[in-house]
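Reopening this ticket.

The earlier resolution said the output was attached, but the attachment link was broken on my side. Pasting everything inline this time so it's all in one place.
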Amino acid sequence: MTSKQRAMLRSMANTMDPILYIGKNGFSPELIKQADDALEARELFKGTVQPECPLSAKEALETLCEQLHAEPVQCIGRRFVLYRESRENPRIVLD
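Inline output:
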């Protein structure tokens, strides 16, 4: 992914609200499934690491990207943004 593509995705995610919350239990199979479903439906989403979570946002982002074969877009504070092109219904066109 080029910096221009990443910038475009960051601008799209700027107005989004987080839809994935990682709490004190960290990762569970249900959380991974929820993130996978969100990526397939939306291609781009924002997540948040709760204060009681033992992981940092960067660690959570790296783990999710590895498990879901997604691209990291941004990580600021406790929030992060992920992108993966939908297999069935791609909507976001990267230049």
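Reporter confirms the inline version is readable. The helical segments are 3-13, 29-42, 57-68. The domain at 3-83 is CATH 3.30.110.60 (Translation Initiation Factor IF3).
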